[in-house]
Amino acid sequence: MAHQPKAYKKFVATAATATLVASAIAPVASAAAETKSFTDVSSAYADAVNYLVAQDITSGKTATTFGTTENITRGDAAVFIARALKLDVDNAKDQGFTDLNSRVKNAVNAVVAAEIAGGKSATSFAPEANITRQEMAKMLANAYGLTAKENANFTDVNSNWIGYVSALKEAGITLGKTDTTFAPTANLTRGEFALFMFRAEGAPAAVGEVALASVKATSAKTIEVTFNQAVDTEKAKVELLRGTFKQNATLEWADDKKSVKLIGAGNFQAADYTVNVTGLGEKTLTGSVKIEAQRVASIQILDDVAVVSKAMVDGKFTDTTVATVGYSVKDQYGVDMNATLKTNDDANITLKDGVVTISSALVKGKTVGDLVPVVIIDTATGISTTKTVKLSAESTVSDISVAGVYNEKGEVVELSDKSDASKAFIVLDLKDQYGNAITDAAKASGIVVTNTNTSNIELETVTVDQVKKVVIKSEKIGDKNKLVIGFDSIKKAGNTDVLLISTTNGKSATYTVKVAETSTTDVITVGQPEVAVVGEDTLIPVTVTDKTGNVITDVKLLSDANKGIKLGDKTVDVKKLSVKDGQVYLTHKFDSKGTQALVFTTSTYKVATITIDVKAAAEAQAIRGLQEPLVIKSGADNAVTVTAVDHLVIEDQYGRVMKNAKDAVTVELVGKSDVVSVDEDTNKVTGLKNGTATLKVQLKSDTKGDSAVEVKVRVTDGTEYSDYEIVTIGKVQAAGTEEDAGPKAFTVNGLLNGGKVALDPSEFTVKLTGGNFEQNEVNVNKGKFTIDKDDLSKNSSSKPIDTEFTLRVTVNATGKVLEQKFVVSPANKLVEDFFFTASSPSTTYANAKGITEAIVKGGTYAIGEKIVVDDAETALNVATVDQYGNKKVVAATTASILTIVPEKAGSVVISGNGTYNATAVLAEGVNEAVITVKVKVGTATKELKVTLKK
User: Fold this and answer.
1) Is the pLDDT score of 401 beyond 50?
2) What whole-number distance in Å separates Cα of residue 208 and Cα of residue 230?
3) Distance separating alpha carbons of residues 385 and 365, to the nearest angstrom
């Protein structure tokens, strides 16, 4: 909503008065997409919160919490109002308040300039103070131009505020605490403010109905679905069917959210496919597309000239000279493809990786300009191409230019004095005399590279005849090979000209490498956290500016030992800094309750001190219900033991949902029931017959029953399921590759009333197909299957390769057929992710406690050294996940590479850096040093901050 005159806002509010009370429910169906999954937002606030998030008025306190029951500050209220009205905050006149931080300053100036709110005094707005209900009434009444025909009968509101409060009541935005009280000086919670703003905004305009614009195949393995407008990708559920069988496909949404690609693991089978999209309205959106088997549609020889590999001798090419020219093959979708092709002379004209190679048998004795006919044929389709190519002179560098500075991903790099020299390259663009790109480093050997300012940067060199020479090498940049010059080091900010001169033809180029100076921290202000609880990560808002007053949000800079900030006498850890909505937060954990003081210092020695009231550690206080509907199958073998961690939503004394709560609970049957029996000693619930029963669940520590809640349990004999599913299988390791690569278990669930029940393997039959697999009772049995590496498809070298299989399940009771595709691989297990832990290898992955810091005593660090965590000496371990989803805790000595980076140069002596045997020893005279250890396990690299002590 743009900032409109009060008369306009009053008209909107008056016209909407009749529906405002109901609008807390109605608008969301049409406009307020459910953009967040907040765990602390009840149904009473959900529509209002979702609307504010969808309109970019707020984004919550964290990724999973909105802070519904927490008080809202005057500064945050001003920010919400300014965003809702789309006030011109950047050009708002400064109102003279001296207590505003950079996050709220512009918004406060804008709302005060618009006469929506006022300050506490001429120089103070009190942005961190909690807003009262009467202050909120004034802001909303002014913001939306609301007035009252008569004063409300609230006896606790004085004459200064009654007009604003009455206007809100008359508009249906609030009814008060009771018929006669409004509680004007009480603080307002974030949830209440969301409701009031939502109602004041009125019913949002309805969004046009979502429809499919097109469904088409863009390649043999890709289907593109286009919508008539941007859609909520979190709500959209996309299903691909071949006949009645579901097909596996990876979804890749466009940035504008108006289209999605369904990408198969390999080419789709030739067939008619149906795409169903649900979750975007009441109707299922359906489209169909026909996929054709991939075939060669065109072949092209890319040049008229075939470039020879060597210069002529005595005017003729020798018997060691070959010639090459590029070719391309495209399918019916215009996509490059591989195909088995023939030529007019298979013995002497060969095809590989897009290159036609003409052998020396056809080149020998010829000269520049001689012709060689080339024919390429696809025998399957009859598609062919013919070209008579002309033999050229040997390819040499003809043109020199520089594309820029890039990283390995092909992304442009803007260098600064803190850039990692090993991750940036000067990418060259060399062309031969035919205009073709040169990627062979040997052909660039005649180029001399000069670095004109070695005090700024050092380029990679080799020593030839005792002379250092800058190296031009081939590297993969993005998805293509390029000639590059690497950086050996980046020393300081400034501009450096790099000169390139060809010694063969005199061509030259000059490229200026620009290294920017990074900022340094100067002034810091620290805000109060939303809540600080013993033993929990507390997010403390910090605002840091550089010497020119610009806000710094670069966490690497903020954690820089020389230019960053310190907490106490230690530089803040980069892992403990985060940025959300432009605000930097420091994560800090308090060990005891009560008043705690933190002192921050910038690189220019400016200081900020904050006193925080730390609350007692969280304790389970109430049970709010079930995590998901409880459905069990009848029979003693299917009994379920109800626990807090597996089944219940537990809240602490601060009204927050506790994740992984393990508090003991009691379970008892409400009334009499022949549907279930409950063992109150073990909390085991046994289904007796189809039906529904009510259970009373209560925290065992609660003797008064304040935490108790009643929940429903649904019992089925397995004949009532509304649908079925195969739980995602994921990538599977073939048996016979490693000792523990064995049977793979899979689960088929029956679905009922939102709950799930795992079917017994006797309730369904299985058909497994793919590769060279032949099913029998041994390799598919009792809900498990085994696929041996010999069952996989083979490559041209007869080696087993990743192979797609299909698991087809038929439910015996209904005949329902389910199908899921998955890939089986012969590859050995390889760690793809991990975290450091002090938990022992016997600990399960789920129970392993992650660490990011450790202490090592004795003055020496190596991968096998004992660490000190929580005052206890233990071994360093890692909790790993491999490509097959296997999770386990293993010793950190499984690492392959260690790289040690000292926080302070000269504090340690490092040997073997970048190898498994890397060690760090305290330098002479040094009693303590901080190092960052970069540990590589499998394909993943993680950092551990180690304090090394004598």
Assistant:
1) yes
2) 11
3) 26
- 8 Å CB contact between 603 and 518: no
Closest among 531, 528, 532, 572 to 554, alpha carbons compared: 572
Which residues are within 8 A (CB) of 251 and not within 5 positions of it... i.e. 6 or more apart? 238, 260, 261, 262, 263
DSSP string, 733-788: EPBTSSTT---EE--EEEEETTEEEEPPGGGEEEEEESTT----TTTEETTEE--B
CA 523 from centroid of its chain's CA atoms: 32
Strand partners, 710: 696
Partner residues linked to 262 by β-bridges: 223, 251
Q: How much is the pLDDT for 582? A: 85
Task: Dump strand ranges (E) for 577-716.
Answer: 577-580, 583-589, 594-601, 607-614, 620-626, 630-633, 640-641, 648-652, 657-658, 665-669, 676-679, 684-687, 691-699, 709-716
Where do the H-state alpha helices sit in 189-330? 190-201
For residues 831 and 879, what is the distance between their CA atoms, to the nearest angstrom? 10
Quick check: helix, strand or coil at residue 576? helix
- Collapsing DSSP to helix, strand or coil, 845 comes out as helix
What's the rounded Cα separation, in Å, for the pair 268 and 557? 48
Under 8 Å between Cβ of 638 and 687: yes
- β-sheet bridge partners, residue 350: 357
> Could you tell me the two tokens for 355?
């290159």
Q: Give the predicted TM-score (pTM) of the model.
A: 0.44
The rounded distance, in Å, linking the Cα atoms of 860 and 909 is: 9
3-state DSSP assignment of residue 622: strand
* Strand-pair category, 384-391 with 371-377: antiparallel
Q: Which string of DSSP letters, residue by residue, matches 888-903?
A: EEEEGGG-SEEEEEES
Least-confidence region, from 166-180, 750-764, 785-799: 166-180
**Could you read off the pLDDT of 889-947 as tens digits, one per residue?**
999 988 888 999 998 878 899 999 989 999 999 998 899 999 999 999 999 999 999 99
Give start and end residues of each alpha helix (H) in 533-650.
Answer: 555-558, 644-647
- DSSP β-bridge partners for residue 898: 915, 935
Q: Could you tell me how far CA 583 lies from the centroid of its own chain?
A: 19
DSSP-assigned beta bridge partners for residue 685? 640, 678
CA distance linking residue 780 with residue 773, whole number of Å: 11
Q: How far is CA 50 from CA 37, 44, 195, 939, in A?
A: 9, 12, 11, 39
Give the tokens for residue 151: 């004063």
Backbone angles phi and psi of 157, in degrees to 5 = -115, 125
Q: Which helix (H) or strand (E) holds 342?
A: strand 342-343
**Beta strands 523-526; 285-291: pairing state:** unpaired
- Judging by DSSP bridges, how do beta strands 853-857 and 940-949 pair with one another? parallel
Mean pLDDT across the chain: 87
Biggest alpha carbon–alpha carbon distance for the chain: 112
Looking at residue 350, its pLDDT comes to: 95
Distance CA 667, CA 378 (A): 72
Q: How confident is the model at residue 417 (pLDDT cuts 50, 70, 90)?
A: confident
Amino acid at 615: K
106-133 pLDDT, tens digit per residue, is 999 999 999 999 988 888 999 999 999 9
Residue 925, amino acid: G
Q: How many CA atoms, within 13 angstroms, populate the side-chain half-sphere of residue 712?
A: 9
Q: Which of 4, 133, 156, 36 is nearest to 77 (CA)?
A: 133
- Predicted pLDDT of residue 36: 56
Q: Name the token pair of 343.
A: 């030529």
Nearest-angstrom CA–CA distance, 872 and 540: 29
Strand partners, 614: 594
Residue type for 907, please?
S
Strands 630-633, 665-669: pairing is unpaired
pLDDT at residue 439 greater than cutoff 50: yes
What H or E segment, with its residue span, contains residue 162?
Answer: helix 162-170
Q: Does the pLDDT of residue 643 top 80, yes or no? A: yes
CA proximity to 449, closest of 460, 440, 433? 460
